[in-house]
Amino acid sequence: MHQSPVADLHVHTTASDGVLTVPELPAVAREAGVDVVAVTDHDRYHPVLDAPVTVRDGVALVRGIELRVEAGDQQVDLLGYGVRRTDDLEALVDRIQRNRVERGRRIVECVEARLDVDLGVDPTEGFGRPHIARAIEATDAPHDYDGAFEHLIGNGNPCYVAREIPDFAAGVATLREACDLVALAHPFRYPDVDAALALTEDLDAIERWYPYDGSRGHDDTGGDAERIDALAERRDLVRTGGSDAHDRTLGRAGPSAEAFERFADRVGVDVASG
């Protein structure tokens, strides 16, 4: 049986589409029983964190990033850990964020015109479709959060606008220069799982613990977990894991103390600090 996680290595904050702020993280982490939190906001590293690893109120915060890339016929997410600022990473993040803001404005304009509502949102860096879905849910429009994606802003729907996404090779090269560890996020969420797993040949790590939707038939205890373990052993991959929290609940998934040791060694986390 998997032991309780000591770290949550996949967490979003208000720097992208989460609800937690950095000052809130230590208390929320302690409540969840985790000593280490990796802040992995979408397509940007958190502007408040000023080092690859910092300790706040006894909780180690790892500066990370979740970067979406084009990989053949599908898009996948990469997790970079222990982020250092480099010229190439700053240029990539700035370009993606400018595109995100413009895309956000176009989607908002479409939704407001289609529903005849005022969403009251102003796209800034870190803006994404979840912000729009929450705003739609708060209006009198006949759509809740999930319905907003299903009927309006999800892929292929009337107000969907594609965004700029770097290709896999460029994304990996940029993250490798800036990060201590580059991982494939949630491998069983992609349409072509085999193709996604094949990408780990060029990566350092893979997300092993993740709270998959049970309807997908994947969890932390079945054959999928064994498949990841075998792949990690064969390719000498570090196994990571986290809740992918966009809310205030941390620790739904993550490595145990023993499993966390390799990550800690690679990224320079002093477990005793937590």
For the biggest sheet, the summary is: 8 strands, mixed
Low-confidence stretches: 214-219
Tell me roughly what share of residues is in helical segments: 25-40%
* Radius of gyration (Å): 18 Å
CATH top level of the largest domain? Alpha Beta
What name is given to the CATH topology of the largest domain? TIM Barrel
Compute the separation of the termini in Å.
Answer: 24 Å
Quote the beta fraction. Answer: 15-25%
Tally of individual domains: 2
Could you tell me the number of beta strands? 8
Please, what is the oligomeric state? single chain
In short:
The chain is an alpha/beta fold and about 270 residues long. About 35% of the residues lie in helices and about 15% in strands.
Can you characterise this structure?
The protein has helices spanning 25-32, 87-115, 129-137, 145-153, 168-178, 193-198, 223-235, 257-267; strands at residues 7-11, 36-39, 53-56, 59-71, 74-81, 181-184, 205-209, 238-241. By secondary structure, it is of the alpha/beta class. Strands 1, 2, 3, 4, 5, 6, 7 and 8 form an 8-stranded mixed beta sheet that branches. The longest helix has 29 residues, at 87-115. Mean pLDDT is 92; it is low at 214-219.
